Amino acid sequence: MSVKLGVPSKGRLMEKTFDWFADRGLILSRTGSEREYAGAVEGIEGIDLVLLSAGEIPRELASGRIHLGVTGTDLVQETLVQWDQKVEPLAELGFGFADLVVAVPGAWVDVDTLDDLDAAAAAFRARHGVRLRIATKYHRLVREYLRRGGVADYRLVDSQGATEGTVKNLTAEAIADITSTGETLRANHLKILSEEPVLRSQATLYRSRRAVREPEHQAVLSALYDRLGFEVRNRVTV
Amino acid sequence: MTGIATIRAEAARLRARFEAAGAQPVDCAILQPAETLLDLYGEDIRARAYVTQDPSRGEQMLRPDFTVPVVQMHMAEGAEPARYTYAGEVFRRQEDHPERASEYLQVGFEVFDRADPQAADAEVFALFEQVLKPHGLRAATGDIGILTAAVQGLKTSERRRAALMRHIWRPRRFRQLVDRFAGRSPVPATRAALLEAADPLAGAAPMIGRRSAEEIGERIAALREDAAEPPLAEGQVALIDAVLAVRETCAFALDHLRDIAVDLPAIHDAVERFALRCEALYQRGVDIHALDFEASYGRTSMEYYDGFVFGFYAATQPDLPPVATGGRYDALTRQLGQGASIPAVGGVIRPDILLRLTERTAA
């Protein structure tokens, strides 16, 4: 059995991942037709490339079906309970930067901090009889962040896409979403709170702590870690 | 490992004790409408309870406790006064503690009685103490009512008192607000700029969403009023801190709180209710000279309690969750009573924890 490396199956994240490995002498490529999600690794023998949706990579790592995987910090921390017991970050890849932030309408000149957001939520509930809605797909991270920030009287509503549009569409009063430049937020008349973001995320290479290691994997991983220039401590098997 | 049959038998035994104490056995649906619970506990409940979707009934929750449905049942159809007991599973998500049980039994005893609330507090506590006596547990007690009375009595604006009341159950946020009102923490630069601006809404982004320009204007007016308000006096902060720091046996705590009440007369009535409760406990044979009282007890985990609170712990096994918890929840009956309300107090025992204690002691 080969060592399995999971990488995002499409888009800029896939291209940048391929570039990152290519800079280190490993050629990742898709095999077969454009539409087929199969791949190959040249440069070291014994590694299988598995192309997956970035959102599925955390679960595949946690279940041990892949040994290594590239995905965003945000997805790992949102998807995996006690993520640090299931995966270990080996390297931050220096792209795919994005912050998970809380944003409110730019017109809310009175709301700039979590303290403001909490006060606005209390007044909103008193007036409208319902809790202030925050649209997001990062339920766990955002709930924990708002709990630590002492925000009450809000409710999270699920939004799996086009989250920036929910305020204008009256399905939420505020949002929590991933942004890299803030451009889409501004275009939708939203502003980011002046607080530490919920999370600073970037594309990261993770190692599964759960995957079964077979004896022949050790040499393959050693060669890979040499090529990637990792410290020796990362080679210790669990 | 204790089998489920053994735990059920223990639950039945405990429920029989509560029945013998005059309680009528009741049961509740496992699936509860999520909306009621979300309104009471806020979004945090989603992290602690299992939410499921029903195509026609909407969001449902696996009951995280019995108190809410028992209160609803009593408010809808109960005769007064009433004593209820129940035994059944509750369900709790354990995101951060996968090692803890996500499904366990609770056996409860709840009293709805207007006649003498302090006597009812003492009745419930004394019953729990008696039932749990063979296990040699440590009891902790507190009184959220004294804390809320202290906040209500602060010499500051109604708005600040309301903000503090809202966060009594979030000690960190409460402290942050006290610091801000006392002028101990700096005003954020954006807040200062907002307060100074002649027309804060000038040049702002277009209005979108349900929160209106009027609401924004109201908050700015409120912030300006608050900025003009003198800081909360250090003496007032010291009084709140003094109340929160009370931690001794009931008899000493009562003396101590009466001293504080000289400078903070707003807590006088609440402290005298505590005195009546101590007397009622004493009448029922509880040793109030040995019973611990902590003014801040029950602040973090028991959001619907608003008066007497208590818990029983295995003193020598701090890794175990509390064996029993309970308290007074008058406000909850008001929230769920659609106009009606009734003084209510109760508590639950976890038979599984009780059995684990017995096993460990035997081992």
TrEMBL record, chain A:
Recorded GO molecular functions are: ATP phosphoribosyltransferase activity
GO cellular-component term (any): cytoplasm
Q: State the pathway, as annotated in the record.
A: Amino-acid biosynthesis; L-histidine biosynthesis; L-histidine from 5-phospho-alpha-D-ribose 1-diphosphate: step 1/9
Looking up Pfam families in the UniProt record yields: HisG
This enzyme's EC code(s): 2.4.2.17
SUPFAM superfamilies, per this entry?
Answer: Periplasmic binding protein-like II (SSF53850)
Enzyme class of the recorded protein, top EC level: transferase
The Gene Ontology biological process annotation of the record reads:
L-histidine biosynthetic process
State the protein's name.
ATP phosphoribosyltransferase
Q: Which InterPro entries match?
A: ATP_PRibTrfase_cat, ATP_PRibTrfase_HisG
The answer on whether this UniProt entry bears the keyword Flavoprotein reads no
Q: Which UniProt keywords apply?
A: Amino-acid biosynthesis, Glycosyltransferase, Histidine biosynthesis, Transferase
Instruction: Provide the catalytic activity annotation.
Output: 1-(5-phospho-beta-D-ribosyl)-ATP + diphosphate = 5-phospho-alpha-D-ribose 1-diphosphate + ATP
Instruction: List each copy of the ATP phosphoribosyltransferase catalytic domain by range.
Output: 54-226
Q: Which organism is it from?
A: Thalassococcus profundi
- Job description of the protein: Catalyzes the condensation of ATP and 5-phosphoribose 1-diphosphate to form N'-(5'-phosphoribosyl)-ATP (PR-ATP). Has a crucial role in the pathway because the rate of histidine biosynthesis seems to be controlled primarily by regulation of HisG enzymatic activity.
